C-alpha cells in the first residue's frame, strides 16, 4: 500500500468518526473558487444535515476524494441522487448517493503556494463556461512560461 493510500484511508476514517480534516487542494476543477494549493477544511457531512445545492462537498471515490459543488439533487420514489460538478468542468459528475458524500467544505486557508483565499460560499450558479475558459488560458500561459524557461537552459 502506498503512502498516498494510507493517508487517504486515514482521512476517510477520521471523517467517518465525526472528525474534520484539512487537505491541500490539487487540480483546477474548482477554479477560481478553490485554487491548487489551497488548504481546505472538510467536516463530516452528518454534522449539519444533508447537503444543499450550491454547497461544496467531498465525495468518496476509489481514486480518493473529489471536492466539487453540489449542482443538483434529484429525488425519485423517495431516493435522492446527488449530482456534483467542478466550477470549471465542462460536464457534471455521475450521480452519487448520500453514502458517497463524506463531507462538506467549511473553510479554507491560504498557503505559500497559493496566497489567494478560497471562496467557499454557496453558489447555485457558478459560471462554468467562463471558469473553464479561464483555466484553459491559465494552463496555456503556464505551458508557455515553462517552455520559455527550459529554452533558456
Task: Describe the structure in your own words.
- The protein is α+β, with helices and mostly antiparallel strands.
- The protein has 2 helices and 6 strands; from the N terminus they run αββββββα.
- The chain has a single domain (3-147), classed as Umud Fragment, subunit A (Ribbon).
- A 6-stranded antiparallel β-sheet has the order 1-2-6-3-4-5, with helices on one face.
- The longest helix is centred in the C-terminal third of the chain and has 25 residues, at 128-152.
- It is globular.
- The relative contact order is 0.19.
- The model has no long low-confidence stretch (mean pLDDT 90).
Report the β-strand fraction as a percent range: 25-35%
Shape: globular
What is the count of distinct domains? 1
Helical proportion, percent range: 25-40%
Strand order of the largest sheet: 1-2-6-3-4-5
Number of helices: 2
Mean pLDDT: 90
Which structural class best describes the helix and strand composition?
alpha+beta
Layout of helices and strands:
Layout: H1 3-16, E1 21-24, E2 39-44, E3 56-61, E4 64-76, E5 79-85, E6 101-109, H2 128-152
Antiparallel strand pairs: 1-2, 2-6, 3-4, 3-6, 4-5
Identify the notable features of this structure and list them briefly.
6 strands, 25% helix, Umud Fragment, subunit A, alpha+beta, 153 residues, 2 helices
Task: Sum this structure up briefly.
The protein is α+β, with helices and mostly antiparallel strands.
